[in-house]
Amino acid sequence: MAETKKDCNVALFGAGFMGRAHSNAYLNVAKFFDLPVRPVMHTVCDILGADAFAANWGWQHASTDWRATAAADEVDLVDITTPNHQHAPVAVAALEAGKHVACEKPLAGTLDDARAMKQAADAHPDQRTHVWFSYRGCPALALARKMVRDGKIGRIFHVRAQYLQDWAGPDVPLLWRFKGTESGSGAHGDLNAHIVDACCFVTGEQITEVCGAIMETYIKRRVIPESEAGNIKGATVGDKIEYGDVTVDDAVSFLARLSGGGSASFEATRLAAGRKNANRIEINGEKGSLRWDFEDMNWLWYYNVEDDAERAGWQKIMCTDATAHPYVAAWWPDAHILGYEHGFVNLASTLLKNIGGAADAVEVPAPTFQDAYETQRVLEAAVLSAQNRSWIDLSDVK
Amino acid sequence: MAETKKDCNVALFGAGFMGRAHSNAYLNVAKFFDLPVRPVMHTVCDILGADAFAANWGWQHASTDWRATAAADEVDLVDITTPNHQHAPVAVAALEAGKHVACEKPLAGTLDDARAMKQAADAHPDQRTHVWFSYRGCPALALARKMVRDGKIGRIFHVRAQYLQDWAGPDVPLLWRFKGTESGSGAHGDLNAHIVDACCFVTGEQITEVCGAIMETYIKRRVIPESEAGNIKGATVGDKIEYGDVTVDDAVSFLARLSGGGSASFEATRLAAGRKNANRIEINGEKGSLRWDFEDMNWLWYYNVEDDAERAGWQKIMCTDATAHPYVAAWWPDAHILGYEHGFVNLASTLLKNIGGAADAVEVPAPTFQDAYETQRVLEAAVLSAQNRSWIDLSDVK
Amino acid sequence: MAETKKDCNVALFGAGFMGRAHSNAYLNVAKFFDLPVRPVMHTVCDILGADAFAANWGWQHASTDWRATAAADEVDLVDITTPNHQHAPVAVAALEAGKHVACEKPLAGTLDDARAMKQAADAHPDQRTHVWFSYRGCPALALARKMVRDGKIGRIFHVRAQYLQDWAGPDVPLLWRFKGTESGSGAHGDLNAHIVDACCFVTGEQITEVCGAIMETYIKRRVIPESEAGNIKGATVGDKIEYGDVTVDDAVSFLARLSGGGSASFEATRLAAGRKNANRIEINGEKGSLRWDFEDMNWLWYYNVEDDAERAGWQKIMCTDATAHPYVAAWWPDAHILGYEHGFVNLASTLLKNIGGAADAVEVPAPTFQDAYETQRVLEAAVLSAQNRSWIDLSDVK
Amino acid sequence: MAETKKDCNVALFGAGFMGRAHSNAYLNVAKFFDLPVRPVMHTVCDILGADAFAANWGWQHASTDWRATAAADEVDLVDITTPNHQHAPVAVAALEAGKHVACEKPLAGTLDDARAMKQAADAHPDQRTHVWFSYRGCPALALARKMVRDGKIGRIFHVRAQYLQDWAGPDVPLLWRFKGTESGSGAHGDLNAHIVDACCFVTGEQITEVCGAIMETYIKRRVIPESEAGNIKGATVGDKIEYGDVTVDDAVSFLARLSGGGSASFEATRLAAGRKNANRIEINGEKGSLRWDFEDMNWLWYYNVEDDAERAGWQKIMCTDATAHPYVAAWWPDAHILGYEHGFVNLASTLLKNIGGAADAVEVPAPTFQDAYETQRVLEAAVLSAQNRSWIDLSDVK
């Protein structure tokens, strides 16, 4: 364990894109937030080696041995950013070794893995678990949640959630993200996971039923990147180019019922040309509406049914007011907008406050393994609905 | 029949909101468009009487006798804007009397009525039928169709269509629109009808399967307007206010498959606070995307996958270029934007060109009874999907 | 004079673009508005002949004799849409003949002409004068005026007005609009006239000083349209193409002081690529702000300083509420948006109410010759400021 | 000097808002960019003491002695974020001590100070000078510059630049920013400095003439913050509240000529209710237009005159493509948007490349003292224009 109580030694698993985003969060979070513990960038672990990564970001150690790192005595917090099928083994081992555990989303590639992780968290209630649904760290989305809780929207009739991207056109090769064995799913786990979490986060409601779903792989075969040609099931050899089967979805959309009686729709796709990172949600209630799009992440739109007819209209709120908007006081003067990685820094502040026992200082809650398991159940229900061509009651998905 | 070949005597049925919109179209269309026949505002017929209406708009005659009007010798074109349950009797009678027949959407309140109308149209192939899906008359939506046909979008992956309104909050009384016996359905027939037509119009594809649907009445009872209290099934008597049961949906959303292999979602609601007339459609294809919202009806957004990465982005096209955009040459110089009723005037030009035998001058096709019957089948399939909690193949809906 | 008191016989001068816009207004205005007089489309007069125009629009007579028409006994209202240098002679003659006179903007091509028209109006105070600053007829701009009058904005600090178009690139030939003898000025009279009127209309203030101006002709020579080659001063003859001198401005921008102490900026140009019809105004006051752009003419943006910090933001008001927004009750149900020509129809309703003595029914005032003369003085002051390279006090411009 | 050649020891002056922004830049820049020197956070100097600031951000030393720090042997780079009137003495001393010098904008509070700094830079040509016009570090603005240089816009007709804020309403007390002795100017130096730099940066042109200006203090007296009551010229004593005179402008707007023949307008204000940080620029050229607003900093709008009429329209470019947009490759995968402080980090990368002699790796140039002096001359010309009520030729401002 760290030598002083105030230090929290972090071990990061995975030195890819998410590894960078988390490193940036640990580097910066204590500069902006007042925290009960000090994050120490102790060890980064990656099976391909992480020496250069450690040197660049200031991790004190680099390792290729995940079992040793997850159990190392000096480590307080294990943070997992590896491919989805590796989440469960690392998380369970770390929990059993007495660590706090944070994990990238989705919680796991399969519901079985997710359940195992949730059960491990249940078995170690004194250790914190944390899932990086990073958009909870966007002030605008957190403000939406606050306004719903404050009764600004009233009874919720509709949630309309989409996560649209466009990077997976037919020319994109067969990356690991297109292989079910590594990623578990495609757009569904990658993108729908975010918006299911956002829906429950903002509304405070649960999804009780999936009322229809379409799951589709539009680009069924892709070129195998050179290094892997010939090693993949389904690959064929042409004159110059080899193709392999895509084994995940490109797009999944589904309809759902909310516990408060409203309806919801969810859509994730990687084939919406022009939609770069359109993580969007709109909530329509009896007293008003809210909507948000990550592509314009600093703005929240609000409609108040009770405004005078003369002025009634969607209000475009720049969520940068230190006195009124979540997280903002930690950053710059009003009206200096934030970017993508601030979501991680903000969420890291919550994680470290929770670990430091300052739960009452937590402005915006971060999801636990238990919460993320609920999201995983919804994703599973959507898959079943698409496969069975019928509605699925969530109580039938365990 | 009209005294000169060039006149087309119109009989309008219904002197409400749509009666006004159609009157405006007949008054103005020949001022802007070069037509093979001249529309003559001959008779307006309404069971409540239409003398003042006729005087205001310049209809030569007013009648309360629908049977006589529909069969009158001098009438060339019967145009129906009455409540939905009256569409079929008037339309069938008029077709049998040898008239061309235009009808407001949805084609009918029930699939049985719609089928009867379609069969009557089949039986009189030399008479034109026409359904007022007026948004086809918006230049931007017509341009979207043209761009799809010209291959700008390529293979279609997704259609995302919504028609969101917000006028039906809990304080709105039990108008005829909330009574199934008069309207047939609620948001579904009123709004989804438009966007199903728009989807097929723009993409040139058909809907082959409904893959889940939610149909809901959120506000189940409404105050009975004073004149009707006590006359409505389900009404109860309180001290001062009487309530009646709402017998149509407030909102219907459904998922669907397109004949080209893509997926589509449709949502109609009257409870989306802040969405006033948000008739919206987005099409994502392999080569690009298009999107449109009636609230900004003069703009079409276009994304071209083949643009250089430096400049690639959604392009906001003001659809007011006389040399390049449908319908525009008839109106004002470039960049003088159009409004709601221009859709009717534009569609009226098509109707009158068709009646005058100038089909090759028709820039944008208007839907026939046969087309609208297909739309009605899709609406029926969505209802069945919501009721059965399962997918519905369109071939099972006759 | 018209046979019944209720008729108002209109004589229209000029059968071009504006002639069409006014014809449309007279055709439709009584269908939507309840008016004290009935507009009768009596005579259209154009030196090139207007028989076809009259037939198309339903004018009862066509004439080429402007003097006779302006003085004809049966005419009640003379409406002028001819080129700017013809405004004064027609208007003065008509006023002297006892007619009400409406005139397209700018009031005249020169300040001398404008003064003569204003003096003629002064001399005939019982006849109405009216200038077609048609954007006053847009509900959103009229709402902006109402909100300022109701104190929603408070003390005005800034007005930022622009009218940006892009149709006058180097390839556009030497049309009449580029010739000073016919048009009087370029973008200045055509576009700045509108936004100076809008500024005074919305704020209720006057312009007291011009504090700097730039007037420029960027494209100094243009191709002479074939029919006119060789007839224009400055033309030169090449192998195939002849050029002539542009004798008006392409763009004029100026700064000004408002009578309430605030500052204002105005900019008109025909060379703002991508700005099609961007007639825009923003008002910043102590209590709030308003902004509007004709390219999105149905929307008004409003910012209220007194809103809670949590929700404060620009509010996007769709100006289509019959109970709360000017002119709207005359048209369609809420949320059915209007277009360009509705401005003329709305303003025509004011003109006819004024003529019919129903001034107290006028919701939004239309400008008189006196008002438009004030606007013309501001335009003249801007020209003087650009020429003199110094500030110009409006009291020095008579 | 730093112990290894690769280290660059930084001394930061000023521990306020800008001190934080620069600290963040030095902390993060080497994590994302490949740099020829390593920035070392050596000393922070503030007259009020900076121990806590140093501890939070990781500065190795804290000092209150500016003279000693500016001349300290170990320091390689002096970076100045103090109030404007302190820029010159620190910068000149540091240059004379052989340091590279970076300075916040505006270069100085007065033109005399700016000239002294420019001359000191001239006298030490081997030392780098750098001014933090941080918006050059926004990818979208840097892309605009690139597109202009690549000829996408052609001959420039108009630049329309505004920097609008709203934080200075009548209730805001008499902060240092409202006192001329400390800040030199109000909105003019604070905001117009940015947009004059942006104009020259993007267009590559200079401003040759100021053609009119308005400079105004709308709120002439403000409440004195408690600590300072009685110490300020112009203060009066009431029962409870004391007021002092505001001695800077609230707003300055001016017109200008560009060296390429086009016209430009600039406006800075702190009284534009609802405009939070609206640093905006639009460039209209013969071949196209570009526009940008910092409130939506990740987007650049582009209009291409040569697009087909069918698709021509403003294109909304998300400037997050690593292959095509400046700075982006250093950060996250495509479509992960940046925030305010990234501008500083990006500009810091340029500063450190310049110091390390890797000028050919500089993608986007940062301004030198010489460049910023030119901007200061333009600001001075605007002041003179407002005072003299006439045009000012830049050649008359030295």
Question: What are the key terms here?
Answer:
25% strand, 6-stranded parallel sheet, 18 strands, alpha/beta, homotetramer, disordered N terminus, Dihydrodipicolinate Reductase, domain 2, Rossmann fold, 398 residues, 30% helix
Q: Largest interface, with Cβ-Cβ < 8 Å?
A: A-B, 47 and 47 residues
CATH architectural label of the largest domain in chain A? 2-Layer Sandwich
The termini of chain A sit apart by: 36 Å
Low-confidence stretches of chain A: 1-5
Task: Output the radius of gyration of chain A.
Answer: 21 Å
* Helix/strand structural class of chain A: alpha/beta
The strands making up the biggest β-sheet of chain A line up spatially as 17-16-15-14-7-13-12-8-18
Q: Could you state the CATH homologous superfamily of the largest domain in chain A? A: Dihydrodipicolinate Reductase, domain 2
**Approximately how much beta-strand content do the residues of chain A carry?**
15-25%
Proportion of helical residues of chain A: 25-40%
Average pLDDT over all residues of chain A: 94
* Coarse shape of chain A: globular
CATH topology of the largest domain in chain A: Dihydrodipicolinate Reductase, domain 2
Structure summary, number of beta strands of chain A: 18
The CATH first-level class of the largest domain in chain A comes to Alpha Beta
Elements of chain A, N to C (H/E):
EHEHEHEHEHEHEHHEEEEEEEEEEHHE
Total separate domains of chain A: 2
The number of helices of chain A is 10
Oligomer: homotetramer
Largest sheet of chain A: 9 strands, mixed
How does this structure look, described?
- Four copies of one chain form a homotetramer.
- By secondary structure, chain A is α/β, with parallel strands linked by helices.
- Chain A has two domains: 7-134, 3-Layer(aba) Sandwich (Rossmann fold), CATH 3.40.50.720; 139-334 and 368-387, Dihydrodipicolinate Reductase, domain 2, CATH 3.30.360.
- Chain A has helices at residues 17-32, 51-57, 66-71, 87-96, 111-123, 139-149, 180-183, 187-203, 342-355, 369-388; strands at residues 7-13, 38-45, 61-63, 77-80, 100-103, 129-131, 156-164, 207-216, 221-223, 236-237, 242-245, 251-258, 263-269, 278-285, 288-293, 299-304, 314-318, 392-393.
- The first copy, chain A, has a nine-stranded mixed β-sheet with strand order 17-16-15-14-7-13-12-8-18. A six-stranded parallel β-sheet of chain A has the order 3-2-1-4-5-6, with helices on both faces.
- In chain A, a hairpin with a 4-residue loop joins strand 12 (251-258) and strand 13.
- In chain A, helix 4 packs parallel to helix 5 (111-123) and helix 8 (187-203) packs across helix 10 (369-388).
- Chain A is globular.
- Chains A and B meet through strand 7, strand 8, strand 12, strand 13 and strand 14 of A and strand 7, strand 8, strand 12, strand 13 and strand 14 of B.
